[in-house]
Amino acid sequence: GAGVSQSPSNKVTEKGKDVELRCDPISGHTALYWYRQSLGQGLEFLIYFQGNSAPDKSGLPSDRFSAERTGGSVSTLTIQRTQQEDSAVYLCASSLVIAPGANVLTFGAGSRLTVL
Amino acid sequence: DAKTTQPPSMDCAEGRAANLPCNHSTISGNEYVYWYRQIHSQGPQYIIHGLKNNETNEMASLIITEDRKSSTLILPHATLRDTAVYYCIVRAAIQGAQKLVFGQGTRLTINP
């Protein structure tokens, strides 16, 4: 597609429920990233995927968070047993890695998660 | 990756040039300087990046000092729509994808 697409744009859930957030990257982009941004805060890196390499999961805050990328394209971020502190905007980005120093990320509009 | 230091906030009059500074005194020879911005309620947007030479595109100009320890992003004719948080990021140019680590950035307000 023309840009990075995320769904849902807004999700309200109850504490303890599981949620799935979806990201459709730009077609052909080999790298995909997840970030989150709490209200009034900066961007916090969560995880990234590149091609068939093992993902960098170093930013996932707890084992309740997981992500997968199927077929090298669509990615799903899953949060199990949601807590109120999980409330944030979850941002996905993708990039086409063509050369060192030329790795520009294109971000989606984000999925706003509210845990009641 | 080298850390960056930016002022937390700046103001600029509409129509004037906005000059946003960034210090990266520990930058290494293979590290690029990237600038992104985030307009309220939107995802970050790439602006420009460079290694040694000054760069210009349709959005902005990037001036990097000769010793590469600092840089300035210039928006030549700022408009109200340029109000955003601007992030300066330094990242090594290695093969493959890398995560971008965002700092607190500079909140730029363009005043009418």
Describe this structure in words.
The complex is a heterodimer of chains A (116) and B (112). With 116 residues, chain A is mostly beta strands. Chain A has strands at residues 5-7, 10-13, 19-24, 31-37, 44-50, 65-69, 75-79, 88-95, 106-107, 111-115. In chain A, strands 2, 4, 5, 8, 9 and 10 form a six-stranded mixed β-sheet that branches. Chain A has a four-stranded antiparallel β-sheet with strand order 1-3-7-6, with no helix packed on it. The radius of gyration of chain A is 14 Å and the shape is globular. In chain B, the strands form two sheets. A five-stranded mixed β-sheet of chain B has the order 1-9-8-3-4, with no helix packed on it. Chain B has a four-stranded antiparallel β-sheet with strand order 2-7-6-5, with no helix packed on it. Chain B is mainly β and 112 residues long. Chain B has no helices and nine strands. The A-B interface holds A 4, 30-31, 33, 35, 42-43, 45, 48, 50, 53, 56, 59, 91, 93, 95, 97, 100-101, 103-110 and B 30, 32, 34, 36, 38, 42-46, 49, 51, 93-105.
Q: Uncertain runs of chain A with pLDDT below 50, 5 residues or more?
A: none
Rg of chain B to the nearest angstrom?
13 Å
Instruction: Compute the separation of the termini of chain B in Å.
Output: 37 Å
Largest protein interface? A-B, 27 and 25 residues
* Rg value of chain A: 14 Å
Percent of residues in β-strands of chain B? over 45%
Mean pLDDT of chain B, to the nearest integer, reads: 91
Order of helices and strands of chain A: EEEEEEEEEE
Contiguous uncertain segments of 5+ residues of chain B:
none
Shape of chain A: globular
Major sheet: arrangement of strands of chain B: 1-9-8-3-4
Task: Summarize model confidence as the mean pLDDT of chain A.
Answer: 91
- How many helices of chain B does DSSP assign? 0
H and E string of chain B? EEEEEEEEE
Supply the helix-strand structural class of chain B.
mainly beta
The end-to-end distance of chain A, rounded to whole angstroms, is 33 Å
- Helix fraction of chain A, binned, reads under 10%
Which structural class do you get from the secondary structure elements of chain A? mainly beta
